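[job 0412] stage=complex_fold ligand=G3I status=START
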Amino acid sequence: MMKLLPVLLALVVSVGLNAVAKQHRKLYFGTATNNEEFTNDTAYLNVIKDSRMFGQLTAANSMKWENTEPSPGQFTFADADQFVRFAQRNGQILRGHNCVWHQQLPDWVLDGTFTESEILAAVERHCGTLLEYSINDALNASEDSWDVVNEVINDDGTFRQDVFFNTSGTKYIAAAFRAARAADPHAKLYANDFNIEGPGPKVTAYHNLIKTLKKEGVPIDGIGIQAHLIVGQLPSNITENLESFTKLGVEVALTELDIRMTLPSTPQLLAQQKKDYETVISACNAVKGCVGVTVWDFTDKYSWVPGTFTGEGDACPWDDNLQKKPAFFGIIDGFNA
Ligand code: G3I
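[job 0412] stage=complex_fold status=DONE, emitting structure tokens
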């Protein structure tokens, strides 16, 4: 009965995921979003604007390099402003996403020819300006986090070869973190990546990167574990894996959680998905240094999954019609486990 109580309560009253996360000493439960979604869709707006449900927002696209610095040194924050103002109005903290990533780059970066010092200067200007922007504009800037570098390591543990690495080796990583810290002394600065939910060569490479950066005095505060997962295929030892990071003196957060399935969905798949959400949330809940969880949009209506993985989807805790799925209650169970 005791175990059933939270679920029964959640069914009767509208329980907020952020409220539950906070009861369990997490800083937030949040979601990614796009401006078009909360501006054009009233049913969506009514769920996302409630800070008892979502205490933190991540811009899925509007702060990325192609959107914020489309030409060298020309910064445009119209979309970011709309997003930041929305979060401010709702009393929600922000995750900045992201400073440096190999995707969604403007052509001048992607196809540009740079010397080492030119690419480092471009990275410093971009990260510095983004962090300066967010410290000036975000209501709760001191609680905010930033994905300073995104997806810099391959699954086999080697560094990703992109315009930044090919021009500067790993120097751009330190340069990005230092510029971010110089611009905003308070934001928590993260490296963010996928496929690091369980042990393996990629996790080992991140351990080594953290040790090296810390030895060099580079200001890294956290590792964002994206957690784009597959129903029935969770890595084992998620809890121990989170602890392996926190032991190195960084915090962790689940930054892009979703758990996709092969369509069509069935009651069995939805039940397994509920269990999987519970497992992941309870792992974060069990680790003191796991500070919060963000889902990569909360409804299947706007999930990135079907557009990327043909035949897969239904990865989110709310369905296409903005109705809560069993996964929603799996999240509550995970916090209460
Ligand atoms: O803005 C254009 C629009 O003008 C055009 O009409 C439309 C036609 O397709 O495309 C729009 O751009 C799309 C953009 O999202 C904004 O909706 C791009 O095609 C599409 O590729 C882009 O996808 C984003 C993806 O990153 C790019 O890789 C997803 O929305 C976004 O959720 C996703 O987020 C990433 C994280 O940043 C990093 N981790 C993985 C995660 C999922 O891929």
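The chain is about 45% helix and 15% strand.
[job 0412] exit 0
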